[in-house]
Amino acid sequence: MSKPSSFSLRGRKALVAIKDERDATIVRRQFERLGIDIVTWDGVAKIDCRPDVTLIDDEFLPLAAPAQRAALGRSPVIALLGTETPSRLKLVLDLDPASFLVKPLRSAGIYAALVLAFERSERTNELKQQVLKLEQRLRSRRVVLAAVLQVMHTHALAEPAAFALIRRAAMEQRKTIEELSAEITANGSLPRAAG
User: Fold this and answer.
1) Mind listing the pLDDT tens digit for each residue in 6-30?
2) End-to-end CA distance of the chain
3) pLDDT of residue 2
4) Own/partner pairs for 139-146, CB < 8 Å, 24+ apart?
5) Do you find a cis peptide bond into 66, omega within 30 degrees of 0?
6) 118: how many CB neighbours lie within 10 A of its CB?
7) How far apart are CA 117 and CA 98, in angstroms?
8) Pairing relationship of beta strands 13-17 and 77-81 according to DSSP bridges
9) DSSP 149
10) How many CA atoms lie within 13 A of 40 on its CB side?
């Protein structure tokens, strides 16, 4: 199943915590136009929904309960900034917002902030997945090195030739170099190609 487009907002759910009624009305009106379901939050109650995005007024900061911070961290956050003091900005940055809006709110800019928040969240998740894969490959380098040394010893080859042999065998067997290297170190020799 593919992820919805960052530009398509209909059917998404937003957790909204805004103190000023005028700003809250503007957000409600824009979200209704965009087809976004709204769950209001007073900044105190337990968050019992899984929103797709959170809009939080900087007047609710700092969040006292760790559970609140954890709940907000599951979806992109759009911060509503009322003042630009360094202390207030630090509190906002602690939320790691994906986008922001400046108060007093206007209807212009809300859609752009939502799209940017969803897009940044998606890109951040992709980068996290890439980092996990690279960390896994980095951990497996020891196994690859051990296999290269073993092939060098058993076949009397130089390091580049031993690695090339492993790479070629991995390609023929449709395995990663890391998978084949693990087999080599476990079996003590290069596995025979099937077929």
Assistant:
1) 677 889 999 999 999 999 999 999 9
2) 36
3) 63
4) 140/178, 140/181, 140/182, 143/178, 143/181, 143/182, 143/185, 144/177, 144/178, 144/181, 146/181, 146/185
5) no
6) 24
7) 5
8) unpaired
9) H
10) 10
pTM > 0.85: no
Q: For 101-157, how does the pLDDT look when each residue is reduced to its tens digit (9 = 90+)?
A: 999 999 889 999 999 999 999 999 999 999 999 998 888 899 999 999 999 999 999
H-assigned helices in the chain: 21-34, 66-72, 86-94, 110-139, 141-155, 159-172, 177-187
Q: How far apart are CA 124 and CA 127, in angstroms?
A: 5
Please say whether the beta carbons of 185 and 146 come within 8 A: yes
Report the distance separating Cα 170 and Cα 189, nearest Å: 13
